[in-house]
Structures are given as C-alpha cells and as structure tokens.
Amino acid sequence: MMPQRLIPALLASVTLAGVPLASSTALAAGTTYAEETQITEADVAAVQQAWGNGIVAIGEAYTAGEDYEEAASEHIERFYAYGSKPVLFKPTLAAEDQFRGSFDEALSYFVGGSIEEDKGFAIAPYTNVRWENEGTLIFDDSAVAMGNYYFTTTEGNEVKVEYSFVYAPDEDGDLKIVLHHSALPYSPE
Q1: CB 107 within 8 A of CB 96
Q2: One-character DSSP codes across 111-157
Q3: Domain count within the chain
Q4: Which CATH number fits the domain that encloses residue 148?
Q5: pLDDT tens digits, 90-101
Q6: Ramachandran region of residue 85, left (φ > 0), alpha (ψ -120 to 50) or beta?
Q7: Omega of the bond prior to 86 within 30 degrees of 0, cis?
Q8: Which of 37, 47, 102, 130 is the most buried (most CB within 10 A)?
Q9: Is 134 in contact with 146 (CB distance < 8 Å)?
C-alpha cells in the first residue's frame, strides 16, 4: 500500500495528453475542486448541453435529407481537440475498432463510413440528450466529468449510457474534449 504522504505528489505528476489531471490537494469522492482556474462546473454543464444539442442536430439533418456529414464534422471540430491535442475517444457502440484517435475515425462513428462496424451513432436519430454528472473535478487546466447521459429515441425511450469526459481549454479558451469514454451499463445476463 502506498503511504498517504506520497499520494498528493503522485497525483500532481499525472497528466493525460499533456493535460494535468490532478493537483497536489487531495479530493474526496464526488467533490469539485478549483484553484486558480477559469473553468467552472457551469462551463462544463454548458459544453455538455451544447454537445448533446449537436448530437440531436446531426440526427435532424440526416432525417431531413440535409448534409449530416457536414453537421457531424462541425460538431467534432467544435467539441473535440483533434488537431490541437491528442484525443482519447472510446465510443459506446464500438467493439472491433474500439478507440478513435483521429478526426476521421470519430466522424465514422458518428455518421458511419470508414470503419465497417460503424452504423452512425448520431444519425439514429435522438431527440434529446440529458446529463447527470456523478461528479465534476476542476483542475488548473482541465475538468473531468463522470456520470450517466440519456439519449431519447424518436419513440420517446431513454437509452442510459455511462461516461467519463476530460475537457481542456484550447488556445481560444474554449473547452475541448481530450478524453471521451462511453459504455452501456453492465448487464450480468
């Protein structure tokens, strides 16, 4: 077992894609911590809501026969750090090619395309995305959120998905996703 006095120093050195994931102050589970940062929980909630609205808009474009691939490209450019920072993306419905490290691989997941198993998650379509953060951690240059989000189908059913996201500001100060991990809840059957 690691001595308690070493944990803060270890946490201070942890980074993801060059983004600090922890500070030297210990945190209790389910708490939020901010020290000398401009990121707030409200910022994270706003980005989450806008991301969900973007998923709905992609599906609406697909249903209306509009350029849904362009809508998805704009969505990825707006919300993910591809091109400026490394991105770790593990989509919900990916089994064979589980990880999407490039813009084109993310686009394939959202609208179908270059990866055979992709059927186009965002063109399902969905009518709403509702977020329930279990916890949000705010650090110097990043924020981490974990919880459940619910995708409402056109039949009105909610599909529950578990998530972890890490957000980091880009050069303009806009929060971008550098880690996105989603999974369907565990089912013992």
Answers
A1: no
A2: H--SSTT---GGGS-EEEEEEEEEEEEE-SS-EEEEEEEEEEETTS-
A3: 1
A4: 3.10.450.50
A5: 888 777 777 787
A6: beta
A7: no
A8: 47
A9: yes
